[in-house]
Each structure stands twice: as C-alpha cells, then as structure tokens.
Amino acid sequence: MKIKEEQSTLVFRYVAIVILILGSVACLFPFLLILSASLTNNDSIIRDGYHLIPKEFSWAGYRTVFRFPEQVMRAYGITVFSTVVGTLLGLFLMTMAGYVLQCKDFKYRNFFSFVIYFTTLFGGGLVPWYILMTKYLGLMDTYTVLIYPGLMTPFLIILMKNFIRSAVPDEMIESAKIDGANDFLIYYRIVLQLSMPGIATVGLFLALQYWNDWFTTSLFINDTKLFQLQFYLYNMINAADSISKLGAGSGVNVAGDIPTESTKMAMAIIVTGPILFLYPFVQRYFVKGLTIGAVKG
Amino acid sequence: MAVTTNTAIKTNSAINANKKRGLLHELVTNRILFLMLFPTIAFFLINSYTPMVGIYYAFVQFDFNSSLFNSPFVGLQNFEFLWKSGKLVQLTLNTLGYNAAFILLGNVLAIFLAILVSELQGKWFKKITQSVLFLPYFISFVILSVIVYNMFNYERGFLNTVLKGLGAQPVDIYSKPGAWIFLIIIFYLWKHLGYSMVIYLAAITGISDEYYEAAKIDGANIFQRIWNITIPMLKTTFVVLLLFALGSIMKGQFELFYQMIGNNGLLYDTTDILDTYVFRSLKVTFDVGLATAAGVYQSIFGFVLIMTVNWIIRKINSEYALF
C-alpha cells in the first residue's frame, strides 16, 4: 500500500519536472533567439534567416548602435530620468495616500477610497483624456507628460494601503499621538520606516511601468529628443528609414552599410539589459507584493 | 410637557449643528491628513474625473480650435457613423472573446502550474522555475513585438528558417488572420502566466499541512490530495481574481494587441479590439468624433456589465461582491 502511494507520487513529480522544464524553456527561448540574432552577421541573417545559434558571429549590430551613441544615450537618459523622478514622486504621494486611507480615525477614508476605486470602473475614454492633456493642460512634448500620467494607479494605492495596515501596529500610532506627534511626523518617522518592504515592492512596480513605457511617447511626443527608450526601439523596428537616419547630422553617410537586422536585435538587448540584469535581485519583492495583494483581493 | 419638548428640540438642534459642523470640523482636526491626501485626490480629479466631462465630445462635431461647449451639437450622429461602420459587433465580440479566453485559460493554467511547482521537493529547482516563468512579465511589449518579428517574419523569421531547413514550404503568417487568434492568446499566456502562478502559489503555501498529513494517513494518493484539498482551497482566490478581471473585460491588453498587430489591416477582422480601434481612430485616421463615440460606448457597456455581474454575485454570495 505504502509503496504504491510513493510510486504515484514519484510519477507525478517526474511529469511535473518535465512540464516545468518545458515551460521554462518556452519562457527563455525567445530571449535566446534575440540574443543570438544580435550577435549574428547581418548578411547571414538576410541569407539564411534567424537561427538559435549564430551562423556567422559578429559584433556589428552593437557596433552600429554605439557608432552614433548620442540618440541612444539620449533616449536612455530620458527613460532613466522619468523612471527615477516618477518612481520617487509617485512613492511619496502613494505612501501618504495609503497611510491616510488606512487611518481609523479619518472619517472619510471609505469615501475617498471609493473616489479612487471608481476610476477603475468608469472613465471618459482615451480621447477626452488626450484632448485634456494636449489642449487644456498643454503637455504635448514636455518632460511633465513623461512622468505625470504614470504617478499613481488605484491598484498600487490599494496595495500600499494594505501594506501599511499590516506593517504598522495601531498601538504604535496611538502612543505616538499621545506623545504629541502630528500625522505627518508619524507618517515620516514611523510609517515609512516600518513599511520599507512594501515601499520597495510598490516602487519596483512603478519603476517597471516607467521603464517599459512607450505609449506616452506615442501619444504625446513628436520631438525625437524626448523619445523614451522603448519608443526609440519601437520606432527603429517599425519605421523602415529610421535606421538609415542613424548617422544623420553627423555628416557621415552610412545608409549603405548598416546591418539593419542585427542592429534591431542588438538594440532590443540593450533596451532590456538592465531589467534582465536586475531581475534576479528584485523579483522576490514582486512575489511578496503579489502575495499580500492576493490575500486582500 | 412643554419643557420636555423644548429640551428635545434643543438637543435635536444641537445634534443638527454637530452634523453640519461634521465636514468642517473634520477638515480642521484632521487638516494634516487632508493635506497628505490632497495631491492624490487632485490627481484623480484631473486625470480621471475631468475627462468624464469630455464624453460630451461624442455628441459634437469636433474642432480643435473651438472649445468643447462651442462646438456644434450633432446629437447621435457620431454613434450613427460608428454603427454604420459595421464594425461595432465584431469589435465587441473580439474584445469580450479574447478577454474571456485570457481570464479562463490564464487562471486554469496558472493553477495547474502552481500545483506542479508546489508539489516539487527541491528548493532551488522550485525557486528557479518560479523565477524563469515570471520573467516574461518584466519585459516591455515592444520587446514582445521584436520577438514576434524575429519568429514570424516571412523572409527571415525563425519559424520559416526551421521549415526551410526541414525542406517544407515557408508560411506567411501575416496573411493568415485565423492564426493570430492563437498567437495572441499564446503570447498573452507567455507574458502573464508567471504572474498569476505566483499568486496561486502563495495561496497554496497558505494551506495548512495538517490537511495533507491527515489525507496521507487515510491513504489518499497525490491526485486525490490535489483534487480534494488543494483545488477546493484555491476556490476563493480563483473567484476573487476572476471577478477582479471581469471588471476590465471591455478594456483589453491594448499594448499586447497593438505591438503584435500594429496597423496591419489584413488582420483586423480577427484581432481588432475596441482599445486598438479607438487608438487608431485618434492617432492614425484622426477621426476624433468616431474615436470618442467608440470610447464612450466601451465605457458605458463595460460599466453596465460590471454593475450587472456585481449585482448577480451579491445575490448569490455577497462575500465575493466587488463593492
């Protein structure tokens, strides 16, 4: 009886391992394809197509990207800037909101929570928002538009609220109040210190959202100097002439000898690099965030 | 008698005064809390509530140079155009259909994977699998479009490279609208399964070991334990996630569709959803009236749908209701 049970468990585990290995391969495979293509000689790609292993190895794709580094570095700069500023500012505002919305002696906390939540149920749609941003707020081609729309989301505010509620004991806030601390002081000295893991999680969600944003540029930016990194890549892949314009302005005519295919793939690797590099260190914070978010629904 | 009425009136008016003072009183005593919350509320008022006024754009002839309420009122003309374009039914069905597939397949497969991972022994293998499956969630949709291009490009794509290598005919997927239904769902799952799996894995970790121990003593095998303990215990998480997803069933994964399909008109029949239609009407064909009307239709239809679903759930089991 016992042996039989163990056998079925063993069989189950072997099957599970096989399925999970296949799943993992499916998750990694596309990255390998891009990495390999970025390291392949362009003529070889055009002749033989993309392969999993480079047929003729070459650094030409990367060399082209960095031959005229101004544009890429500029797009990198824009994205780093909006990621850092947006994440810090968004965190500051959302931690405050999260603290206030979980305060038990704040009478209107449910009302304001609903005001925020309701925006996920109903909205004016894309066009009225677009007109508001461009015509009435005049945010076309500004740094502000790269940061402002992404500052807060209802989901992250609720997540923050739940984090603070579970991390900061009520008695601690009460005793600080008896000692005469005002709410901002309590927030600044106690709440921020105690909810650091939660802040890290929300901050990483926010940073990821800013880093991966291309949509804002596609709506509100015409000035190539303000292109976000992701949109720069998007533009490179979709606008056929954008690669041949790489050297424009430098007086060098490079249109003829640019390895278009491998350059696209090299660019993709350069854009994703920081995420892949940081991923092993930060992913546990996301797991933590999802775990708490899931408990509360 | 007269005295008691008098005092009653007095207390009443005192209570009324207190009630009236409520908001003002709150504003004064909790002024710091209000100040701390103010930027957030201002953000949502400007960013989410002001555009609701702009719904009126759907009822006027749009002109960028004149203000909203000076534009000529055209009644339901924009909606008439939208209806006459003949795409509304297809767009609605696509949006609902894809979302239903995303929600159902996404959750069922995530539960399946979470159970597999949770039943494994090796700690490092568990961790690595979880990390690898979660990885695609972190990359941008632009990179996803690079992947799709790399795999399915007709001349150079990996798929055709393999087919040619095997001596088979290359296929032009970009002229096969039917294939994209599967591709979009597959890439959605590729990107999101890891995310939902982590949530279910957390729920499984929360199940007490005692249940499993007791079942083992009773001689239940691994399949019986999963079927009779794990799956029933995941029901709450499943229902919560399902209902949460239903809230956005009329909005859908704009970035996924737009990056995979772009402006490839050949594929619209099977891959166009309301979000992409609105975006294209605004940024590609510049038909603001039509775009607003489609957006309003999407918002209202979605809102009615959520309210109905929530009302039904409240009737069945109010614990699961969204609000």
UniProtKB/TrEMBL annotation, chain A:
- Which SUPFAM superfamilies is this protein grouped with? MetI-like (SSF161098)
* Membrane topology according to the record: Multi-pass membrane protein
Residue runs in coiled coils: none
Localization of this protein: Cell membrane
Mind telling me which Gene3D superfamilies this protein's record contains?
MetI-like (1.10.3720.10)
Q: Where is the ABC transmembrane type-1 domain?
A: 72-282
CDD domains (UniProt xref): TM_PBP2
* Pfam families (alphabetical): BPD_transp_1
Q: Give the stretches traversing the membrane.
A: 12-35, 75-99, 111-131, 143-164, 185-211, 265-282
InterPro entries this protein is in? MetI-like (IPR000515), MetI-like_sf (IPR035906)
What processes does the entry annotate via GO biological process terms?
transmembrane transport
Q: Which PROSITE patterns match?
A: ABC_TM1, PROKAR_LIPOPROTEIN
User: To which protein family does this belong?
Assistant: Belongs to the binding-protein-dependent transport system permease family.
Stored PANTHER family: ABC TRANSPORTER PERMEASE PROTEIN MG189-RELATED-RELATED, POLYGALACTURONAN_RHAMNOGALACTURONAN TRANSPORT SYSTEM PERMEASE PROTEIN YTCP
State the name under which the record lists this protein.
Carbohydrate ABC transporter permease
The scientific name of the source species is: Cohnella endophytica
From TrEMBL, chain B:
Q: Where in the cell is it found?
A: Cell membrane
Q: Which UniProt keywords apply?
A: Cell membrane, Membrane, Transmembrane, Transmembrane helix, Transport
Q: Which GO terms describe its biological process?
A: transmembrane transport
Enumerate the transmembrane spans.
32-59, 96-120, 132-152, 179-205, 226-250, 288-313
* InterPro entries reported in the protein's UniProt record: ABC_transporter_permease (IPR051393), MetI-like (IPR000515), MetI-like_sf (IPR035906)
The family annotation for this protein states: Belongs to the binding-protein-dependent transport system permease family.
The species is Cohnella endophytica
Membrane topology according to the record: Multi-pass membrane protein
Domain of life from the UniProt record = Bacteria
Asked whether the keyword RNA-binding is assigned, the reply is: no
Where is it mainly found?
membrane
Name of this chain's protein: Sugar ABC transporter permease
Q: Where is the ABC transmembrane type-1 domain?
A: 92-309
Q: List the GO cellular component terms.
A: plasma membrane
